[in-house]
Write a structure and sequence with these properties.
With 327 residues, this protein is mainly alpha-helical. Helices cover 58% and strands 2% of the residues. The longest helix has 42 residues. The relative contact order is 0.10. This is Phosphatidic acid phosphatase type 2/haloperoxidase domain-containing protein.
Amino acid sequence: MSGQFSLESTGTPEPSRHVAPAGAPEPTGVLDPVRAREPAGVPDPAGVLHPAGGPEAPEVPEPPGSDSPGGAQAHEPLAPARILKRLAPVQAPVPAGSATRHRGSRERSRRRAVRFLPWSTALLAGLLVFAATSFLVLRADAGFLDRPVLNALVQHRYAAALHGPMTYLTHAAEGPLVIAAVLLALWLSWRDASWRPLVLVGGSAALAVVAATAAKQAAYRARPPARLWEIQESGFGFPSRHTVLATAVLLTLAWVLAERLAGRAARVALWTGAAVLSLLAGICRVALGVHWPTDVLAGLALGTAVPLLVVGAYALCETGRFPPPAR
């Protein structure tokens, strides 16, 4: 019937307003039951409206070399040389000029070792000879060495050209020599305005007397038979105090004078003269029959060690360097 409203279906359903047409994109948050329950948007504190689900978390870049699927590929295994290089300790940079300072330190050490060698060799030789002679005299029989040498010198002492000089030299080797050496050292100290020459010569003379006297009392060795004496003496024989004192004073005086000589030949002549006079002083004691040869040998060794000790100790106190420079 025309003009009347009919409730019957016409057979062709009317398309719904909520159904999207074919090929149209699905509207976000309408038909999805999960999304339909989410709020349409969540504003952040700054007032910006984000889509449903809240603000997306920022993507954190994965470190290079990560084994995760999103990261870069892992590094290849390091070569042994690169591993050792990484494990090697880091060296601090060398300050400028340190190499020069190290070279200077090594050079000073080398010069000190070169200077120490002759001083230590002479001191060690003197002490070893004195110790060996003392052992030979005290613990063994030194007659096999003493008697032949003593008899040979005694037989030739009466020659007209030797008797007088030997007697004069043996008397001058103790008192007059020490007095002359001390006076010369006193004059040198006054001229140089330094106590060094006087301390060295006087210290060597004093130490020589003390050391020789102590050794005599410790060894308790008798002199040769009195029938062989050409001059009168008293006390024990080992070691020869005349020889110890003469050697110590002459060598110390040579040390003091050598630094004032410019030429090498002059210094060699000075040291040779001091050594020859010391040896002659000892030979005269044996030739005059008042000492055994081993007494003189020990006196020469002890007389050599005394000035080395005195000069070394003075250099250590004065400059802090030990041993003193060679002359």
